[in-house]
Amino acid sequence: MKTNEHNFWPFTPKVSIITAVVVLLALLLITGLLRTYTGWPADSSGNTVLIGIFILSLLPIVLAILNVVIERGGTIGYGDLKIDFSKIEQLSNSGFTVPANIGVRGEYVADSGTSNILETLRAATASGVAVIDLEDGHAWWETRLLVLLAGADRLKKPDKIVFIATDEAKQQTYLGWARPSDLLEQLLKEDPRYLKGLYSSRAAAAQWALLGPLQPVPPNNNYYMIPPPPPWMQGTLALSHSWMAFSTTTGLPNELLAEQLLQHELGEIIENTGGAKHISIVHLDEVFKPVLIKKQIDKNWSNEQQTNALFSNEEPVIVITESGKYSAIVSTQSLCNEVLKGIMDNKKR
Fold first, then answer.
1. pTM over 0.85, yes/no
2. Would strands 129-133 and 96-98 be described as parallel, antiparallel, or unpaired?
3. Which residue, among 30, 20, 97, has the nearest Cα to 64 in the 3D structure?
4. Angstrom distances, CA of residue 68 to CA of 5, 10, 285, 344, 347
5. SS3 of 129, please?
């Protein structure tokens, strides 16, 4: 292997790339063996470990880039570290803004009325990022947020929830983001009826899921009849809401049955009695402060502030704002890559 003497990183770019690939494969192999024989890493930390492996494998390439800069007599300062937001827009995701209270404001939802929230839930769970606009603090109830978080936690999508609100007359002010599972864990502590409703709804939905797709009704075979609950089915929630379990036009199971049943339960026991709590900026911080990630990069900050925020961020993503207003959420690695590209472009000029 031919190297250059007295260099910061003595290997050629080609060797650096090959080294990065070898390091990546070796770390993946070691991690696979550890998981097979020791059970580490657990499923909950798998993504974090993979991100760490990917970043470590890039080290030879980063060192090669720094070597080029040093060889050319260059220095890296805040003037070199710039984020080109025109390019970042192509890499970012602004997310799906969920209509207030999952589309039904200020009135309780139960039984047949739960159908009104299904389309909104489907749209929200089809996006990687869901944006919750608390507006003036009266737009969302805890119960509706619970239904959304329960679906996101179960379906693993969206995997990021962003909170915004109207703060001191400034609309869509960024408040923070978090993972649905973390938010759900915190919210369930607020009322014992939340946890009971969650378990009841998921147990009822799991029983109906055992029946599988329905068979069409002859002779036209264009309609599906939902069967009565089988003798082995247990629980009032499952037994009294068979009409929710399947689509009569496709015969397929309702993929959001658990969340529809949960909304019915919450609507009957909490919303119908006037017990639903509004989520304001203050209440959001009270409930979710341990898991809410507030780090951001604002387009109007100085280069120094932006790069400090970027390189101190330990999460795989970071939020972009403009004068405090939410703009999008973007991969931290993508931002770092753009900064490095900017350095190389400047050195070529």
1. no
2. parallel
3. 20
4. 14, 10, 46, 9, 9
5. strand
